[in-house]
Amino acid sequence: MSRTVQSFLLSEMKSMVGVKVYYNTFQVSKHNEVASYSWETLMANIGGNLGFFMGLTLVTFLEITEFIWDIFNIACGRVTPDNKVRKLQNKKSQDINHLFSTKFENSGKRRRLSL
Q: Name one GO molecular function term (predicted).
């Protein structure tokens, strides 16, 4: 070898660092990765979540529809207050109302006549 090559190799050898590795034991560990979800379990979980969110969507849609219906009824004036008693009309109540109205009308006529 030529002198320049030898000097180059010596300069390279001086700049190199060596590392020696010593093992305490010669045991080897082997690690296996196993999926924690099977394909069936994954599909069941996805299906369950989709069903849950579709149910929430349906309930939300019905609530919004009911809200719009209530707003429409309020705008049209069809809503009666919850504390208002609704009058039931049946034959007995009509007869009683008729009796009271005729007595009132007759008493008014008598007063007019007496004046």
A: ligand-gated sodium channel activity
